[in-house]
Amino acid sequence: MRLLLDLHPDAYPLEGFRKRQLLEWVFVQGAGSFEAMTNLPADLRAELAGEFALNPFREIETVRSTDGSVKYLFTLHDGRQMEAVYMPYLDRRTICVSTMVGCPAKCAFCATGAMGFGRNLTPGEIVGQVLAVAGGEGIAPRELRNLVFMGMGEPLLNYDHTMLAARILLHPQALGMSKRRVTLSTVGLPKGIRRLAAEDDLGIKLAISLHAPDEETRQRIIPTGHRNSIAEIMASAREYQAVTGRRVTFEYSMLRGVNDQLWQARELASLLRGLVSHVNLIPMNPWDGSGFESSTEEEIQAFYDELEARGVDVSVRRSRGKDAGAACGQLALKRPDAVTGSVASI
After folding, report:
1. 61, 83, 125, 137: which is the annotated catalytic residue?
2. CA distances in angstroms from 6 to 20, 122, 275, 294, listed in the order given
3. What are 268-278's pLDDT values in tens digits?
4. What is the pTM of this model?
5. Burial of 16 (0-12, 13-18, 19+ CB in 10 A)
6. Is 328 a catalytic residue?
């Protein structure tokens, strides 16, 4: 049985008015079953239910943080598991979605990387995270206006499925998100970055997880980093900007005694010269067995000051959901029992 959410809205099985009704039920109302689509004829609902599955997930659990963030743990129909994170702010609601079960990048400071790679998610399993979180939070799917492909996985290694998911997210008859509010985060794959630049009808934002300005440090903390040099990554970022005109964000996890030295700040500033960019400094979020610790507040401030003095647009990003294992680098299917709940269905 096919998953309906794997289809682009233009490829939905109905035509005209009935197709618009179906799309509204799925993406505006967030219907969890075909039976709930009461303005569709009963025989049509039965026909759709016989051909398509609507829910990508067998089970959904939640882990709620004291800061209001919520980690969603999804069990897929093949028994594999992955996670998404819901982050409510005063002025927006953001969701961080996964594109894979686990991750092949193997970043040494990331709990997801330590899990290894399971499999790619389908477009519907990616988009379904948005619908499930909206249902779990009791809001309409279109109230989730900000989305980041920053959960489990490397989106550019699941390129086709991630791009189709992005198009579904942006489609005016689906979730109708703004391309300016959708960000794809990559560990830095030049071929994928160039392909993304060529997606001229997409226009989503790019974030590169650089984490070090020198090859020795980067290959130490990102074991797969030797496959693409920093020079190649930066060249592709410049090409991306030349084609799209968009600013490029660089993610930089602050690891004490590893990548937080002032000479590294100076080298990073040199790499970024002439590129319209922004650097997010991210205090490393703890997880058992990582072998790393976050730079201190004083060390982060000194690194920040060194970048700013050299004209780099920089900020410190405070991750949310640490107590729920939902912060950047923590996604590893952990369930703190004291704050665990469940969601019955999308």
Report:
1. 83
2. 17, 7, 37, 39
3. 999 999 999 99
4. 0.91
5. exposed
6. yes
